Amino acid sequence: MSTLLSFTALGLFTGAAYAIAASGLVLTYTTTRVFNLAHGAIGMVMAFVYWQLSVAWGLPIWAALGLVLLVIAPLFGIVIERVMMRGLGDAPVSVGLVVTVGLFVGLIGVAQAFWPPRARTVDQFFGRAGVTVGDAHISYHSLLTIALSMVVAGGLYVLLNRTRIGAAMRASVDNPELLGLFGGRPQRVSMASWAIGAASGALAGILLTPVLSLDYYELTLLVINAYAAAMLGRLRSLPLTFVGAMVLGLLQSYAVGYLPSSELLQGFRAVIPTLMLFGVLLFVPQARLRVGQVKGIVSAPVPSLRRSVTAGLVLVGVVAAATPLLPADLVMLASIALIYGMVMLSLVLLTGYGGHVSLAQLTFVGIGAMVLAKLDSPSVFALVVAALAAAAVGALIALPVLRLTGLYLALATLAFGQLMDKLVFQAPFAFGFNESLTAQRLRLLGLEFGTEQAYLVLIAICFAGMAVGLLALRRGRIGRLLLAMRDSPAACGTLGLSLRWFRVGLFAASAGMAGFAGALLAGLRQTVAATDFQVFASLPLLLLAVVCGVTSVTGALTGGFLLMLLPLTQSEYPALAGVVYLIIGFGAVGLGRDPNGLANQLFRLGGWLRSQSWWPRRSYEPPLTASAPAEEVPSGVA
Amino acid sequence: MALLDVADVTVRFGGVTAVDGASISAEQSRITGLIGPNGAGKTTLFNVITGLQPPTAGTVRLGGRNLARWPPSRRARAGMGRTFQRLEAFGSLTVRENVLVAREIHQGVKGLLRGSGSRVDELLERVGISGYAAHRADAVPTGVARLLEMARVLAIDPRLLLLDEPSSGLDESETAAFGALLRELAAEDRTILLVEHDMDLVMSVCDVIHVLEFGRIIASGTPEEIRADTRVQEAYLGAEPASATGGQP
Ligand SMILES: Nc1ncnc2c1ncn2[C@@H]1O[C@H](COP(=O)(O)OP(=O)(O)OP(=O)(O)O)[C@@H](O)[C@H]1O
Ligand SMILES: [Mg+2]
User: Fold this and answer.
1) Domain residue ranges in chain A
2) Do B181 and B238 reside in the same domain of the chain?
3) Is pLDDT above 70 for A610?
4) What is the pTM of this model?
5) Is the Cβ atom of B43 under 6 angstroms away from ligand 1?
6) Residue range of the domain that includes B4
7) At A625, is the pLDDT very low, low, confident or very high (cuts 50, 70, 90)?
8) Fewer CB within a 10 Å sphere, N or C end of chain B?
9) What is the mean pLDDT of residues A554-566?
10) Smallest CA–CA separation between B54 and chain A, in Å?
């Protein structure tokens, strides 16, 4: 009886903290249509700030708390809104996601740069004091948290439902243009909601730190829990969000208390939010297609088949010629860069052409690597099976969110990545906890690719083949369809395109490409472990893809190269680890609105060079906008 | 029997009732007009018919079949096509590619294998925008974009066409040509439901007209009957003579 009571109290406490975080998330989403993926990260940074004030500088608790909640966090929210988020609600979902992921990664960088890793603790409010019911001790800290969650949820409910500004906020959900008509000042509304949102993240973070310890990632991942809770209210209803948060807290607490502690169930507690999320997603009704003119986006130029094949051959030739001259460690790095380049190509298909976002692309790489290692047969067959397995898993994720908009698909991938990370990859039937699998290098038509040098040439051939295939796809019917889908899903639907299955296919194809790259990676490394595919690493991957240009092969190649450098810089200069994240994160915030990224600057430079008088000229250059002679292009890569 | 039959459809957005128990029908091979002041609920009704907006109540039937819970794509494959008042052209594609994509979607898997170029060029010719074939769709004048939507919807060969203010942005001679096109399409056995603010066009091409006001049908009849209806004159045509009363959205 008393254990039940303690676990209930603990569950209500965590639930209350989730409720506080989730209410803020719902508020910013309903008023600005931006899903703030960095919500947990804001809470994390604010918890560090609170630690700095109260523990490091010894301010009284009430002063530190007041400063963070009433001054620093709201100001921070306002700055974010002013500098990064303005107008994002009307931008494509993918842009909003990339910008908030950028903030997410950037904030982790900030925390690492200002508060280098070491043990830090924050005491509970009122120390260990509390009330004792039977044998169960319930701390005042828990009681305060529960009370605060009710105050926050109730306060926001009143704000939204009983005040004029709240009415304007709610009206803006279905019809943002209406907001202006209410005489309200939309910018004030959105600034206020970001200020409140940031403060709620901070409060949740501060309340949870004594329990969770001050960690960069634990608190940042709070966003998944808050999202799971908020989904019960479809990201809109505050009362349902509150219920969802409490249910989640209790479920997690009871899981600790009553589930037998076996190895398989080890990671289970951590993924309860994810499981609940997928459960809820299944019951969310069909999303409506938004109508309204969409301006086409400027895409990177698409080279002709001839040109892309030539470029591919040149790449393979250069790699083959240079390989014998390179030292072994450079060969390894070049191989990794090209494999990452292939992962980036999978994002070109999904994000650049398709307009969808995956926050767990590295997880698909991991699946490919795992399957290849498990099959333990260095054949083309194994490569293909690995790619197909990743594709099948990709389709499986896309299925439950089939009916929903791109936002939900992206968030589901994040939850899925965490699930694989915590529950599957570390399980004994997969990589194993703190263990690794071994893989062999490919043998093909009697050719051995056993040496690093030979394997690099093989990887270059695969990259070139994938790139040429992708570009052929882009020029052909499927590419046209992808652009049409992105420009106006509503028009595609009313023309007879079944959007759901198309999206599942797209997602599966992209996951399959990532899985293929993963299989090659397993062969390259020869030992692979769960830690190689942690969910967080997918985020810098996505950001680099966007920063470098997610609409072109050039961008993918550059992105692969930079991603290869990332762990290198971090191990060579540990002090810079945070700064690198900071640069990537805020780089994405800055460049996220132009999916053509840095690669586009290269194309512009190329265009400028060609426009100079001293540039050797061909007689006729067809204009870029000329209608594509579609029938000449083979497009059977589907 | 009518090809399209909309019965007692109601749509509420929170407190706003956009469509309020409206019933309309469109007869096979006829041009049916749907008119009404701004905000009357015409576009919302189109969204319900094409499956973009689930109705709060009411049914939509096509050829006698109840379409409840059919997604837009299935309705399109059953022969329904529409244009959008707020243009939904594929801005990243050229005008010709816009129509080509529609054609390929229509042909499904077969479209992936077989070319459909010649038919596309015919359609551009037919609505009169061949000159813009190679222009990007987000860089053409509104009138051309409207006609592009027209060509695009014709590419899926629909038997029921829902046109939402297709002539706004067209000049006088283009509008006249457009009226002739509508007549031709009806003669090809296509059924047309036309939302239009240009009264001259509506009165000259429509066989039957429904008048919508505050989400309700206040009158239905031939153009002569509608012109003579006093309620319609009060509610809609007002004191102004019957020409181009409506504005841009
Ligand atoms: N998604 C929505 N959310 C809330 N209200 C809406 C929504 N869509 C339409 N409305 C409202 O429903 C009513 C009908 O709008 P609708 O666009 O159907 O009118 P309409 O007859 O097409 O007008 P117009 O002639 O201006 O095109 C309007 O009051 C509009 O504000
Ligand atoms: Mg309208």
Assistant:
1) 23-120+137-222, 305-533
2) yes
3) no
4) 0.83
5) yes
6) 1-79+158-249
7) very low
8) N
9) 90
10) 9
